[in-house]
Amino acid sequence: MVERWRKETHCFNFREGECTITLKDIAILTDLPIDGDVVCVDSTAPPKVVVNMSGWQHFIWTVTGLCPPEKGDHDADGNPPLSKGQVSITWLTAEIRRKHNPEFGGIPLTEESSERDKDIYARIYILGMIGGVFFPKKSNNLINNSWLKIILGSWDDMGNLSWASACLAQLYRFLCNASARAVKEIDGAMFIVQFWAWEHLPWIAPKVDPDKEWGPDHPLRHEAYGCR
């Protein structure tokens, strides 16, 4: 698919003609919202406000309640928790699980947990979805700290963003970058390209059980089309 991508037209060039992934495809496959404000990411480092913390350390602590060390420790993938304006998703998820794991002296997250704990857990989950699913980098582990500024916002502000258009724009950008002759790797939500190809190029799609029923009681009946 990448070899057939033409960055001049943002289309796949097939023998039968040209076609491309559209905003409607993203909305159907992922169920991400189309309508809303543009997703704008501010990469400016926050000012240092605490003596023993860098600006990003304090900002991450404000969002997640966790302070990643800039030196010394490494996550399970061998990456530092905080480096060059990026934070390790592996480190964040490991720390939040340890915080709520009784085996490590943590307090399990339940319906009776504080609103602060629930809020932090939900924001880290969304951060993982951004950095690991919809806007992944080649490392599939590090996420740019600038996303934290959006995650720190109100829930209404996050819900009123056009996430589908942001996902499509970045997908186009990464497909264009990968189409260069010398490039051997690609960033981005490649599962969207795969699902789109299965839907539009049936001869490469996996076989579907004709007896499979998607009745109203099926657990995936109301999920995004990509899940089904």
From TrEMBL:
One biological process term in Gene Ontology: meristem maintenance
Residue ranges the record marks as coiled coil: none
Listed InterPro entries: AminoTfrase-like_pln_mobile, MAIN-like
Domain Aminotransferase-like plant mobile: 1-210
Protein name: Aminotransferase-like plant mobile domain-containing protein
Organism for this UniProt entry: Linum tenue
